[in-house]
Design goal:
Chain lengths: 424, 61
């Protein structure tokens, strides 16, 4: 039997492929300080909710700080609010919305939510259908594809581009700038190849958005980028265009790769379970709940960090101020106190939508409705245009012994590659 | 994207820049075990890392 206590969640190489036994071990101790880094692991569903709902006690300043996050000073005392405020600007991603606490968080969040209106989402969904078809025109004639790079990455990138107001005429250039959307581009440079030409990056997006924001200030277009461009700082002035470019780039970063992995998980299951695929093909109205159950069972974000601002208690465990807390969304989604027989994938699970894949509380993923539509539209068009979707046995092995390559990290759950074959 | 995965798995090769949260390369030759660098490469959500056979690395976003 595995000694799970001796196993380091953050570094153990066996966990990314199959974390579920370890998750069961965690669920026996819903709030537990793991011994390797001293991180307080919050795995219980109710306990996770309690953290996400209490942004006053649990700061988001360390959300990408990792298990070994260090402050320049010791975190001493029963209330470290002053230390957090003094040093939070030195922490990674300190200028990004997910790291903000109220009141700073409130205004920028309201700006984003005010721009992603139902009307804009409807127009964006119309684009999604067109885009899905355009991309399927490219991959279906080949009868097979590496779904992540050939479909999911360009699809999610261009959908966010459209949502923000990037005109379709610029889409090819955007794909070119990021290096995404080409089958040959799996991130591995050929030996001797020019590195600058081979690596993927969201970096060039910054410059594109700086230009776009300057452009929208001269000529407003009524799109999301115009809204970002004309959002004033608290002192009433227009911020540097780079500020707006950061907001736009962060929407890309947060919404793109996560949705890529969600699409990967959905297609993996559909391709691996012919019966389930048949049911979804026949009863399309089951797709939305299938997406929720996929989010519950295979959510792309394993968890999120918080920092205890003041000493408190959680699930009967003392939590001293300064405690590095990791809320494990993916584990809480398997809490048997909330989800009956959580290890089973149930397409008709009545409360699947209660999952924490998008987080909860003031930092809930603003792109959740977008992600849901992206998967639904992709599946609808794939079902319309194929008779069957299967896993390539050459790449993933026979049904009895599948092989998958998962992202080897403590933060993300998802396939690196997914090789599919299609029946016309 | 600034998820910090590369800086955690290969801390001598990558760091997160505070201001932009963009990962930067500390040592283009790679100053961590090959396994650790491969882990950073495969765990990057923005697929911003490239590895080439001569062990020189590049990164962005």
């Amino acid at each position: 039997m595995t000694d799970f206590e001796a196993l380091d969640y953050f570094t153990d190489p066996s966990l990314p492929a199959d974390p579920f036994e370890y998750y069961d071990f965690l669920l026996e101790r819903p709030v537990w300080r793991e011994p390797h880094h001293g991180v307080l692991m919050v795995s219980g569903y109710d306990e996770a909710l309690a953290v996400y709902r209490d942004a006053e006690t649990f700061s988001s300043c360390n959300f990408v700080g990792g298990p070994d996050m260090k402050f320049p000073v010791e975190l001493e005392g029963n209330d470290i609010s002053d230390i957090i405020e003094q040093y939070r600007d030195d922490l990674p991603q300190s200028d990004q919305l997910p790291s903000f606490d109220p009141p700073r968080h409130t205004a920028q969040r309201a700006l984003i939510m005010g721009l992603i209106t139902p009307k804009r989402l409807r127009a964006n969904e119309a684009f999604m259908w067109r885009l899905a078809d355009r991309q399927l025109d490219q991959v279906l004639p080949k009868g097979e594809c590496e779904f992540i790079a050939d479909f999911a990455q360009p699809y999610t990138l261009l959908i966010i581009a459209d949502l923000l107001g990037v005109p379709e005429a610029d889409h090819e250039a955007l794909l070119g700038k990021t290096g995404l959307g080409r089958a040959s581009n799996l991130g591995m440079g050929e030996p001797g190849q020019d590195l600058a030409a081979s690596h993927h990056s969201l970096d060039p997006l910054y410059q594109y958005f700086v230009n776009a924001i300057e452009d929208r200030r001269r000529e407003p277009r009524g799109d999301v980028l115009t809204g970002i461009a004309n959002a004033k700082s608290p002192d009433g002035t227009l911020p540097d265009p780079l500020e707006g470019a950061r907001i736009a780039s962060n929407l890309f970063a947060a919404g793109q790769e996560t949705t890529v992995r969600l699409l990967g998980a959905a297609l993996q299951r559909i391709a691996d379970e012919p019966e389930l695929q048949g049911l979804l093909r026949d009863k399309r109205d089951h797709i939305p709940n299938f997406v929720e159950e996929t989010l519950r069972a295979e959510g792309p974000i394993k968890g999120d960090f918080r920092l205890a601002r003041r000493s408190t208690q959680l699930g009967g465990v003392d939590v001293p101020a300064g405690t590095n807390v990791m809320v494990l969304n993916g584990v809480a989604n398997r809490d048997p106190r909330r989800f009956e027989r959580p290890a089973e994938f149930r397409i008709d699970r009545a409360n699947a939508r209660q999952h924490l894949a998008f987080g909860h509380g003031i930092h809930t993923c603003p792109g959740a409705p977008l992600a849901r539509s992206e998967v639904r539209v992709c599946l609808e068009r794939l079902f319309d245009r194929t008779s069957k979707i299967e896993l390539s046995e050459t790449h993933h092995g026979p049904p009895s012994a599948r092989r998958y390559d998962y992202m080897p990290t403590y933060m993300f759950r998802g396939l690196i590659r997914l090789q599919l074959t299609f029946g016309a | 994207m600034g998820s910090g995965q590369c800086a955690f798995y290969a801390p001598n090769t990558f760091a997160l820049e505070e201001e932009t949260a963009i990962a930067i390369v500390l040592d283009p030759q790679g100053a961590d075990p090959e396994e650790a660098i491969l882990n950073a490469f495969r765990g990057c959500p923005s697929r911003a890392i490239s590895i080439s056979d001569d062990a020189s690395l590049g990164t962005g976003g």
